[in-house]
Design goal:
Immunoglobulin-like, 3 domains, five-stranded antiparallel β-sheet, 6 helices, 28 strands
Length: 477
């Protein structure tokens, strides 16, 4: 069996009581601080291995080495491969520096095929793995070739090394979050601490746990303060689901409202009022979902705070975007969000997720920012959000804020996203796509008059990278 390192690439990652809260004015310097903000210092490498049935015959276990420098706090190993409808099954284990001989190997854990991502840290570890010091030297990923398809299988291993020596900035910036996640307290597959660990591994800095019609997850003792946890509830009515984020202790929003009940519209608005009174926001989930009772068939409540326009890894959903645009056209400043609606692996926990520009990483600051529309929906938690700047004369603004222009003044929106120089950016004005450009040279002139502008960043393969909330353009003398 070969212990050669193989080809890999190495580079620094570039991650990046609601009620009467009044949004402070947001300057461009605050929205886009100078310099790059990383959640934690880290490096990542990807190693690819190809295995054939002959490799399995030569050795059931194969070892992929990687080097760990001194001073690390945590290692995350994620692997992926095409199962070929069950013809390939690859198990996972991790070995710290030392011999690979039988009986002398220093295993840090083994999970078989149960999970595709594991973390080993000084203070915590994925179940099946040992927390503790991270010794420097040559570690190994153990791959167990349980099954290999006749044509072989490519296995990609992502290794992320983290150092907590430098504390992350805590002030105003874009924070990455997941707003719709489930645990074993409803129909999810893992407990809240395991969910939080998976979210952290994916790059999420805050999460809202939204189990169906209960908040009992809040009573489990958290084993880490990272990511920030927001108590939520997925209010599962018989004709549509909604999330409440930020519920105070003891609060639970009722769900027993049918659209055919007398006074159903008022009852739904009453649920929103109850959520607000409990310190929470109210957001409609997957309004056109195709599971039984998932689509929103209730009245849209006037006091709605947000709506999920992208649910699950494939999206955004066009019908949900159109509904959102209709609400915006009616003058309702409803915030668009995206969420993975995560229940279990191997679905990605961060696809999609949100970037929220908040004054600090606290529940109140995050919820205030969502309420005020300072949100960009992203395809994952790792990509940096686009820089979106709107201007007219000396006035400047950005996502979720107002741009006030004197009558007759030309207004523009510029968009940049250095990590995706070949992406296309669409400018949406009052719900209609009016222009498209390469993001490398994306400055748009806005039409005269008042309205809202948002942008949609699209990759070469047609997938969505980012979709922003609007800048609201007004005209005043």
């Amino acid at each position: 069996m070969s212990l050669a390192a193989g080809d890999y690439t190495l580079g620094m990652l570039r991650p990046a009581r609601i009620g009467q809260a009044i949004a402070a004015s947001i300057t461009l310097a605050a929205l886009y601080p100078s310099g790059r903000v990383d959640a934690r210092p880290q490096t990542k490498q990807t190693i690819r291995r190809h295995f054939t049935p002959a490799d399995r015959e030569r050795g059931r276990y194969h070892y992929v080495p990687f080097d760990v420098p001194d001073g690390l706090s945590e290692i995350t190993i994620a692997y992926r491969y095409d199962t070929a409808a069950g013809a390939s099954v690859i198990d996972l284990g991790v070995i710290e520096p030392g011999p690979l001989t039988l009986g002398a190997t220093k295993f840090r854990g083994y999970s078989g095929g149960a999970t595709r991502s594991v973390t080993i840290g000084r203070d915590r570890a994925t179940p099946g793995y040992l927390a503790g010091p991270i010794p420097p030297g040559q570690w190994h990923v153990l791959l167990g070739l349980y099954k290999v398809a006749p044509d072989g299988v490519d296995v990609d291993i992502d290794i992320t090394l983290r150092d907590d020596a430098v504390a992350p900035p805590a002030g105003p910036r874009w924070y990455s979050g997941g707003l719709h996640l489930h645990t074993i307290h409803s129909d999810g597959s893992i407990d809240p601490n395991a969910l939080a660990a998976s979210a952290r591994d994916a790059g999420l800095e805050f999460i809202a746990i939204t189990d169906h019609n209960n908040t009992t997850h809040r009573h489990e003792l958290a084993n880490s303060t990272v990511p920030l946890r927001i108590v939520g509830e997925e209010i599962t009515t018989p004709a549509g689901h909604a999330n409440a984020w930020g519920l105070r202790p003891g609060a639970l929003i009722d769900f027993r409202v049918r659209p055919e009940d007398p006074g159903a519209a008022q009852a739904i608005e009453g649920l929103v009022t109850a959520a607000h009174a409990a310190g929470a926001l109210f957001s409609i989930n997957h309004p056109f979902g195709d599971c039984a009772g998932c689509a929103w068939q209730q009245k849209v409540p006037p006091s709605l705070d947000a709506i999920e326009i992208w649910n699950g890894k494939v999206g955004p959903q066009p019908e949900a975007v159109r509904l959102w645009d209709r609400l915006l056209a009616e003058g309702k400043r409803v915030t668009a969000v995206g969420a993975s609606d995560w229940h279990r692996a191997p679905d990605p926990i961060d696809a999609p997720s949100v970037r929220v520009f908040a004054s600090a990483l606290t529940e109140r600051d995050v919820l205030t920012a969502i309420k005020n529309g300072h949100v960009i929906v992203m395809g994952n938690a790792r990509d940096e959000p686009p820089v979106v700047l709107a201007s007219c004369g000396t006035q400047r603004s950005s996502v979720g804020a107002a741009l006030t222009c004197p009558p007759g003044t030309a207004a523009t929106v510029s968009v940049s996203m250095p990590a995706f120089p070949d992406a296309r950016v669409d400018l949406v004005w009052n719900g209609d796509t009016i222009a498209s450009k390469s993001i490398g040279a994306a400055t748009f002139a806005l039409p005269a008059g008042e309205g809202y502008a948002r942008v949609h960043v699209i990759a070469l393969d047609g997938s969505t990278i980012a979709l922003t909330n609007p800048v609201y353009v007004t005209r005043r003398n």
